[in-house]
From TrEMBL:
Gene3D superfamilies: Winged helix-like DNA-binding domain superfamily/Winged helix DNA-binding domain. The lineage of its organism: Bacteria, Pseudomonadati, Bacteroidota, Cytophagia, Cytophagales. Keywords: DNA-binding, Transcription, Transcription regulation. One of its GO terms (molecular function) is DNA binding. This is Transcriptional regulator. PROSITE patterns: HTH_HXLR (PS51118). Coiled coil: none annotated. Residues 17-121 form the HTH hxlR-type domain.
Amino acid sequence: MSDFKGIIQQAGATERCPQNYVLALTDTMNVISGKWKLPIIASLLRGKIRFKDLLDNIEKITPRMLSKELKELEINSIVVRKVYNQTPVLIEYQLTESGRSLLNLIDTMIDWGLTHRSNVW
């Protein structure tokens, strides 16, 4: 766990943010940025789900975009794709341990978003 709050509170106005924290934030944003990744991850927090069910859960996403985003999340070890050898072929997606570890981040972002929306609107 980082002590970013403590570092910020102790730092003077001219001190630089530690490089490893900047890199960690950049890495995080590279993995979860975009319009669709967080809704996909949030949908998968409830457990295994099929492609069609993800399409139904996430309003306005196209099949092509969902496929692209799932592949990127798979490359980044956030999502795992499991193919069952049966007829018809069954494919399910689920979060990896790394993907499930995003729950606290998503929960904090939802809290912030609800507060922000009520203050702005």
